Amino acid sequence: MKNSENRYVIENSKLRAYTEDNKKIIEGRAIPFNSESRLLYEDNKEFNEIIVPEATENSDFSRAYLTYNHSRDDVFATVRANSLTTFKDEEGISFRAILNNTQKANDMYEMVRSGDIAGLSFNMIVGDRDYTYSRGEDGKLKRVIHNIRAILEISLISGLMTPAYAETKVWARGFDEYLTQEQEAERKKKEFCTKNKNFIEKKIDIYNISNNEKV
Fold first, then answer.
1. What three-state secondary structure class fits 93?
2. How far apart are alpha carbons 153 and 190 in whole angstroms?
3. Element holding 19 (H helix, E strand)
């Protein structure tokens, strides 16, 4: 089973806003590597979490978009439109967003410049086998994420939301869209295999009938 989870990054998000060729741009660190999270609560477990650099080697960023407070009404850049790009270094995954020319995007730009944005949040898809649990010497439970299937959203978080890295939510709509596309691909694959199987079986029947007639 795959799960859609939000993670909030407050420290070291390295947000900055600037203009380039009359375009308003926001940059920041969306996913930190090898950085222990605050205490998380999930599946009746209490643990700290670490994302290793290898976790994003095969991650799908093609559906990612930039929002404000996880609002679908406030989308400022998307990978699909080439206005949102991500890049990886030894510290984590960063992004660069060329904001669309809307009043909300302009307001967001000014909020980043003035420091009114508390941090970043990212929405990821992970499967049950994409992480492991272990106990540290201090007895605390740790979860290490080894694989992130997809990053669906990067969101700017306002100071009014009081974001905490310990907060995790399921954003079912984004997950359902991702899952539906996977299910559709699997359905087409099965349909193709079934058609070919039926075709081969018909060929065998015709061959057997032909041989029986000759006998």
1. strand
2. 30
3. strand 16-20
Cα separation, 201 vs 102, in Å, equals: 59
SS3 213: helix
Name residue 13's amino acid. Answer: S
Residue 91 near residue 35, CB atoms below 8 Å: no
Rg of the chain over all Cα atoms, to the nearest angstrom:
23
Spatial separation of the C-alpha atoms in residues 203 and 170, rounded to whole Å: 50
User: Would you tell me how many other CB atoms lie within 10 Å of the CB of residue 183?
Assistant: 11
pLDDT digits (tens, 9 = 90+) for 74-120: 899 999 999 999 999 998 999 999 999 999 999 999 998 888 887 88
- Interacting residues of 34 by C-beta distance below 8 A, sequence separation 6+: 50, 51, 52, 53
Please report, as a single letter, which amino acid is at residue 162. T
Rounded to whole angstroms, how far apart are CA atoms 107 and 162? 19
The pair of structure tokens assigned to 68 is: 């404000």
- Residue 60 pairs in a beta bridge with 150
Q: What is the pLDDT of residues 6-31, one digit of tens each?
A: 776 655 578 899 999 999 999 998 88
Would residue 106 be called left, alpha or beta, if left means φ above 0 and alpha means ψ between -120 and 50 degrees?
alpha
For residue 17, which of 98, 104, 122, 102 has the smallest C-alpha distance?
A: 98
d(CA 25, CA 191): 45
